[in-house]
Amino acid sequence: MGFRMKITGGSEPIDFDERSITKVDFDSKSAMDSNARATDYSLSVKVWGKMLYKLGGEGNDPTLGLAQWSQVPSEKADCYRNAEISVISAGQVVRQFTLPNAFVMEYSEEEDDEAGVGTFYIHMKQKKDENGAIKVEGGFGGE
Protein backbone atom coordinates (compact mmCIF):
# COMPACT_ATOMS: atom_id res chain seq x y z
CA MET A 1 0.00 0.00 0.00
CA GLY A 2 1.20 3.49 -0.76
CA PHE A 3 0.06 7.09 -0.72
CA ARG A 4 0.20 10.08 -3.04
CA MET A 5 -0.46 13.68 -2.13
CA LYS A 6 -0.99 16.69 -4.38
CA ILE A 7 -1.44 20.24 -3.11
CA THR A 8 -2.62 22.86 -5.62
CA GLY A 9 -3.68 26.47 -5.38
CA GLY A 10 -0.31 28.05 -4.63
CA SER A 11 2.30 29.35 -7.05
CA GLU A 12 3.59 25.79 -7.69
CA PRO A 13 1.87 22.41 -7.19
CA ILE A 14 3.33 20.26 -4.40
CA ASP A 15 3.49 16.56 -5.35
CA PHE A 16 4.48 13.50 -3.31
CA ASP A 17 4.57 9.93 -4.60
CA GLU A 18 4.53 6.54 -2.90
CA ARG A 19 8.25 6.72 -2.05
CA SER A 20 7.78 9.69 0.31
CA ILE A 21 4.60 9.24 2.34
CA THR A 22 4.65 6.64 5.11
CA LYS A 23 1.37 7.23 7.00
CA VAL A 24 -1.95 9.06 6.57
CA ASP A 25 -4.74 9.66 9.12
CA PHE A 26 -8.13 11.10 8.09
CA ASP A 27 -10.12 12.47 11.04
CA SER A 28 -13.75 13.51 11.33
CA LYS A 29 -14.43 14.85 14.81
CA SER A 30 -17.46 16.13 16.68
CA ALA A 31 -17.37 17.84 20.04
CA MET A 32 -16.58 15.39 22.86
CA ASP A 33 -19.58 16.55 24.91
CA SER A 34 -22.05 15.96 22.07
CA ASN A 35 -25.02 13.62 22.70
CA ALA A 36 -26.24 13.72 19.10
CA ARG A 37 -24.76 14.32 15.67
CA ALA A 38 -23.35 17.81 15.94
CA THR A 39 -23.45 20.46 13.23
CA ASP A 40 -20.11 21.68 14.59
CA TYR A 41 -17.46 19.21 13.43
CA SER A 42 -13.96 19.28 12.01
CA LEU A 43 -12.30 17.36 9.18
CA SER A 44 -8.56 16.97 8.92
CA VAL A 45 -5.76 14.89 7.42
CA LYS A 46 -2.41 14.14 9.05
CA VAL A 47 0.47 12.98 6.84
CA TRP A 48 3.91 11.63 7.80
CA GLY A 49 6.70 10.98 5.36
CA LYS A 50 10.35 10.84 4.40
CA MET A 51 12.20 13.87 3.06
CA LEU A 52 13.63 12.97 -0.33
CA TYR A 53 15.76 15.98 -1.17
CA LYS A 54 16.28 17.07 -4.76
CA LEU A 55 20.00 17.61 -5.23
CA GLY A 56 21.81 19.45 -7.99
CA GLY A 57 18.79 21.45 -9.10
CA GLU A 58 16.84 18.43 -10.35
CA GLY A 59 13.18 19.30 -9.77
CA ASN A 60 11.40 20.86 -6.82
CA ASP A 61 11.66 19.68 -3.22
CA PRO A 62 8.02 19.11 -2.18
CA THR A 63 8.82 19.39 1.54
CA LEU A 64 10.17 22.89 0.90
CA GLY A 65 6.79 23.70 -0.65
CA LEU A 66 5.01 22.42 2.49
CA ALA A 67 7.30 24.43 4.78
CA GLN A 68 6.63 27.59 2.75
CA TRP A 69 2.85 26.95 2.71
CA SER A 70 2.86 26.56 6.50
CA GLN A 71 4.19 30.14 6.75
CA VAL A 72 1.52 31.81 4.57
CA PRO A 73 -0.50 34.19 6.79
CA SER A 74 -4.30 33.95 7.00
CA GLU A 75 -4.68 37.33 5.25
CA LYS A 76 -3.49 35.77 1.98
CA ALA A 77 -5.94 33.77 -0.11
CA ASP A 78 -3.43 31.03 -0.93
CA CYS A 79 -3.22 29.97 2.72
CA TYR A 80 -6.20 27.81 1.66
CA ARG A 81 -5.29 25.19 -0.92
CA ASN A 82 -6.70 22.05 -2.50
CA ALA A 83 -5.22 18.90 -0.91
CA GLU A 84 -5.77 15.53 -2.55
CA ILE A 85 -4.51 12.37 -0.85
CA SER A 86 -4.78 9.02 -2.65
CA VAL A 87 -4.39 5.57 -1.11
CA ILE A 88 -2.85 3.13 -3.61
CA SER A 89 -3.09 -0.67 -3.38
CA ALA A 90 -1.92 -3.06 -6.13
CA GLY A 91 -1.50 -0.11 -8.50
CA GLN A 92 -5.08 1.10 -8.00
CA VAL A 93 -6.50 4.10 -6.17
CA VAL A 94 -8.68 2.55 -3.45
CA ARG A 95 -9.49 5.71 -1.50
CA GLN A 96 -9.16 9.41 -2.24
CA PHE A 97 -9.59 12.30 0.18
CA THR A 98 -10.00 15.81 -1.25
CA LEU A 99 -9.98 18.87 1.00
CA PRO A 100 -10.65 21.82 -1.35
CA ASN A 101 -10.01 24.53 1.28
CA ALA A 102 -7.27 23.04 3.43
CA PHE A 103 -4.97 25.05 5.65
CA VAL A 104 -1.93 24.04 7.69
CA MET A 105 -2.54 23.44 11.40
CA GLU A 106 0.96 22.05 12.09
CA TYR A 107 4.07 21.35 10.07
CA SER A 108 7.37 19.94 11.30
CA GLU A 109 10.57 18.49 9.90
CA GLU A 110 13.05 16.32 11.72
CA GLU A 111 16.53 15.65 10.37
CA ASP A 112 18.87 12.98 11.70
CA ASP A 113 22.56 13.10 10.80
CA GLU A 114 23.07 9.46 11.80
CA ALA A 115 20.33 7.92 9.68
CA GLY A 116 20.78 10.48 6.92
CA VAL A 117 17.04 10.68 6.31
CA GLY A 118 14.73 13.46 7.38
CA THR A 119 11.04 13.09 8.15
CA PHE A 120 8.12 15.50 7.89
CA TYR A 121 4.67 15.78 9.42
CA ILE A 122 1.80 17.97 8.23
CA HIS A 123 -1.63 18.36 9.81
CA MET A 124 -4.10 19.94 7.37
CA LYS A 125 -7.61 20.96 8.27
CA GLN A 126 -10.56 21.86 6.06
CA LYS A 127 -11.92 25.40 6.40
CA LYS A 128 -14.90 24.91 8.71
CA ASP A 129 -17.56 26.65 6.63
CA GLU A 130 -16.54 24.51 3.62
CA ASN A 131 -16.82 21.06 5.27
CA GLY A 132 -19.56 20.02 2.83
CA ALA A 133 -17.12 20.35 -0.08
CA ILE A 134 -14.83 17.55 1.14
CA LYS A 135 -14.86 14.39 -0.98
CA VAL A 136 -14.09 10.89 0.28
CA GLU A 137 -14.17 8.52 -2.67
CA GLY A 138 -13.26 4.92 -3.41
CA GLY A 139 -13.90 2.00 -5.74
CA PHE A 140 -11.84 3.35 -8.64
CA GLY A 141 -10.74 1.16 -11.55
CA GLY A 142 -7.11 0.34 -12.40
CA GLU A 143 -4.69 3.00 -13.57
Measured as a percent range, the helix fraction is: under 10%
Structural class: mainly beta
Unreliable parts: none
**Would you count the extended β strands for me?**
8
Average pLDDT figure? 87
Spell out the helices and strands N to C: EEEEHEEEE
CATH C-level class: Mainly Beta
Shape-level CATH architecture: Roll
Q: Helix count, per DSSP?
A: 1
* Overall geometric form: globular
Provide a concise account of the structure shown.
The protein is mainly beta. The chain has one helix at 62-69; strands at 2-8, 14-16, 21-30, 41-51, 81-89, 92-110, 118-126, 135-138. Helices cover 6% and strands 50% of the residues.
Task: Describe the secondary structure blueprint for this structure.
Layout: E1 2-8, E2 14-16, E3 21-30, E4 41-51, H1 62-69, E5 81-89, E6 92-110, E7 118-126, E8 135-138
Antiparallel strand pairs: 1-2, 1-5, 3-4, 4-7, 5-6, 6-7, 6-8
Give the key terms.
single chain; 143 residues; mainly beta; Pnp Oxidase, Chain A; globular
Plain-language structure description:
This protein is mostly beta strands and 143 residues long. It has one domain (2-30, 41-138): Hcp1-like (Pnp Oxidase, Chain A, Roll). Helix content is 6%, strand content 50%. It has 1 helix and 8 strands, in the order ββββαββββ. Strands 1, 2, 3, 4, 5, 6, 7 and 8 form an 8-stranded antiparallel β-sheet that branches. The model has no long low-confidence stretch (mean pLDDT 87).
